[in-house]
């Protein structure tokens, strides 16, 4: 039986050093990786790409199936423009508020051990509350601070404070701010905590050794390092709020003040008969906004990932 001798190291005569031979590539590893992605690719095609393509295509046809640009032209209608502005305003406000509150929570937990009870409890609660939306969240706020909610009646009967002296704002656009913050803050904790944990204690020690101050550390080291991750999380929160539907549909049952509710109106309202395909044009507008937002998120996240390795 012949035994193949191991490959001898390559010797660089000029430098006098030895170089190891390049590692051998495993045959078939690339094909196996591609084959393993087939189920995920099929899932994206069936449940994401195909519905998106059909939805966008519906915005370019009329009720008879003929090609038209009237649906897309409706995007410049003042009512539609105001709807997109309302969605952008609500998303930006709740994203900024959620990002600030979530970042403060991450800063408070930065000194806690990752395997400690408090840290694990906050991580678990954030994972649950970030997904707590829709009808359940709307009902929770109606039962708490609705017109006949527990907190509303308590403040009115015992302290004479009427939360709705100026009107039933909870069922309008301002009433969506608190419910959106409810799931934006824990989502910020989930996405921003890895960046906060990536700050090395050695950096703070080196800063103090060189005569720096705590404020100087955050000004010249901490904030510049965390800024890309914070901006990426902020964009993610904006996209999350802009695309939210279930909570707004259950709480703001009257009117169509944001784009998802406007799409629902186009599909179900009796006053828009024959204009159901307007929903496709509205969805196209949402896709453009989301594509721009997520493209910026990907660019910023690529820079932020360098500090999380």
In short:
This protein has 309 residues and is mainly α. The chain has 13 helices and two strands.
Number of H- or I-type helical stretches: 13
Q: How many strands, what sense, and barrel or not for the largest sheet?
A: 2 strands, antiparallel
Strand order within the widest beta sheet: 1-2
Shape: globular
Which structural class do you get from the secondary structure elements?
Answer: mainly alpha
Give the SSE order as H and E letters: EEHHHHHHHHHHHHH
What Rg, in angstroms, do the CA atoms define? Answer: 27 Å
- Average the pLDDT over all residues and give the rounded result: 85
Distance between the termini: 47 Å
Spans of at least 5 consecutive residues with low confidence: none
Strand content: under 5%
Question: Topology of this protein?
Answer:
Blueprint: E1 10-12, E2 17-19, H1 29-36, H2 38-58, H3 70-73, H4 78-109, H5 117-129, H6 135-145, H7 150-159, H8 177-197, H9 201-209, H10 214-242, H11 246-251, H12 259-268, H13 278-304
Antiparallel strand pairs: 1-2
Textual characterization of the structure:
With 309 residues, this protein is mainly alpha-helical. It has helices at residues 29-36, 38-58, 70-73, 78-109, 117-129, 135-145, 150-159, 177-197, 201-209, 214-242, 246-251, 259-268, 278-304; strands at residues 10-12, 17-19. Strands 1-2 form a two-stranded antiparallel ribbon. The protein is globular. The two termini are 47 Å apart. 24% of the residues are buried. The model has no long low-confidence stretch (mean pLDDT 85).
């Amino acid at each position: 039986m012949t035994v193949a001798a191991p490959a001898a190291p390559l010797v660089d005569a000029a430098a006098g050093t030895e170089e190891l031979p390049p590692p051998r590539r495993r045959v078939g590893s690339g094909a196996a990786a591609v084959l393993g992605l087939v189920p995920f690719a099929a899932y994206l095609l069936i449940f994401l790409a195909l519905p998106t393509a059909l939805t966008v295509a519906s915005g370019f046809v009329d009720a008879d199936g003929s090609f038209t640009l009237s649906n897309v032209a409706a995007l410049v209608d003042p009512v539609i423009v105001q709807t997109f502005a309302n969605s952008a305003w609500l998303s930006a406000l709740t994203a900024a508020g959620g990002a600030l509150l979530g970042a403060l929570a991450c800063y408070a937990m930065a000194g806690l051990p990752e395997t400690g009870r408090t840290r694990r409890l906050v991580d678990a609660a954030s994972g649950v509350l970030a997904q707590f939306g829709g009808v359940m969240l709307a009902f929770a706020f109606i039962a708490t601070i609705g017109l006949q909610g527990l907190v509303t009646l308590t403040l009115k009967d015992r302290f004479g404070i009427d939360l709705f002296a100026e009107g039933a704002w909870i069922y309008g656009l301002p009433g969506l701010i608190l419910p959106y913050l409810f799931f934006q803050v824990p989502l910020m904790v989930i996405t921003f905590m890895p960046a906060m944990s990536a700050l090395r204690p050695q950096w703070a020690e080196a800063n103090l050794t060189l005569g720096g101050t705590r404020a100087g550390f955050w000004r010249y080291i901490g904030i510049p390092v965390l800024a890309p991750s914070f901006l990426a999380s902020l964009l993610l929160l904006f996209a999350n709020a802009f695309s939210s539907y279930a909570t707004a549909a259950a709480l703001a049952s009257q009117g169509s003040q944001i784009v998802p509710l406007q799409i629902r109106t186009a599909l179900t309202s009796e006053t828009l008969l024959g204009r159901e395909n307007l929903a496709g044009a509205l969805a196209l507008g949402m896709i453009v906004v989301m594509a721009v937002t997520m493209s910026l998120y990907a660019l910023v996240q690529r820079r932020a990932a360098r500090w999380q390795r």
